[in-house]
Amino acid sequence: MWWYHLLSLSVFDRFTSNIHIVMLFAFVPPIASNESLIDGLKRTLVHFPALTAQLSDGREHSRRPCLVIGGEGGGALLLEAAVASNLLDHLPFEPSRHFKLLHPLTEEPEHLFQVQLNRFKCGGLVIAMTFHHQVADGQSMSTFFVAWGRAVRGLAIEKPPVFDRSLLKPRSPPKYEFPHRGFEFLPLCPNQDGLSLSERNINPSDIANIVLRYPLEYIAKLKAELNRKYTTFETLSAYLWRKITIARGLAEQEYATIRISVNGRRRLQPPLPDEFFGNVVLVALPGAKVKLLIEGGLSEAAQIVHEGYERSTTTTSSHLSISGRFMATRSSGRCTRWKGTCCRQRWRRIAG
């Protein structure tokens, strides 16, 4: 008889993308041995059982999507690989199809969490991890990475993860106060049968990945152009948003948006602890007509980003509102990507 525990997926877990995320960390020597890393990983995963669970649609268990912790199956995949070259010969990394050699496969993997330790000839190391996004967001994985690092150094976990899903319980009856269709959720479009979801699927192979590196001196130069003080994140977001919009040649009257992921833990009342493990992410969508965005310059764009980030989906009521919309409609929670949209994410708290 197998013992198991069910951990329900919250509204925000179900709202996020049904994909596996890949992360790579490069370390030049000296770095801990594989044996020490594996031992620390084992001791850390005991405190993060969601990463070794199985994802269930609920039909065999709680009638709602959930994580099955324990029981038959589950676990995490660990791979070790040797690379016959020096790590510094490959740094800084650039997007490449060869990255697939450094991490476990993400096409229908058997495990929600996978790790590959790539040891280079010089002793350097690239730790590659994949995890299912409906299990954790960036803040959650940051908590895990810090805990793993402490375990390797022989230190205890300072603040264990929190899995209490009742902290995100929607209001009863469901209540939503903001428009969500066409923003976080796919819009309904009229057709001959009434209304239907409007969805556009993009082949990942059609998306090009590039890495942009901005020196501190260049960022300081951009900030000097602004009419008031903005954060580095807001400044670079505004700069990239304008440049991408100009490069796309959008019509002046089109409405362009920038999609920003917002961590809701500290914005709820009462706030959730940073150690809450799961997804508490919503979307801020600052937007403007293309004409205003281009002619207003960097200062106008930065102000739009700042106000949109502070206003959109960053209050308790709007986080609760999306919970109400989800529960009232039982929506699939798929996100919209509008024409003219630029996407930015902001996960900074990765250090212990």
Automatic annotation (TrEMBL):
Signal peptide: none annotated. Keywords: Acyltransferase, Transferase. One of its GO terms (molecular function) is acyltransferase activity, transferring groups other than amino-acyl groups. Belongs to the plant acyltransferase family. This is Uncharacterized protein. It comes from Ananas comosus var. bracteatus (red pineapple). The lineage of its organism: Eukaryota, Viridiplantae, Streptophyta, Embryophyta, Tracheophyta.
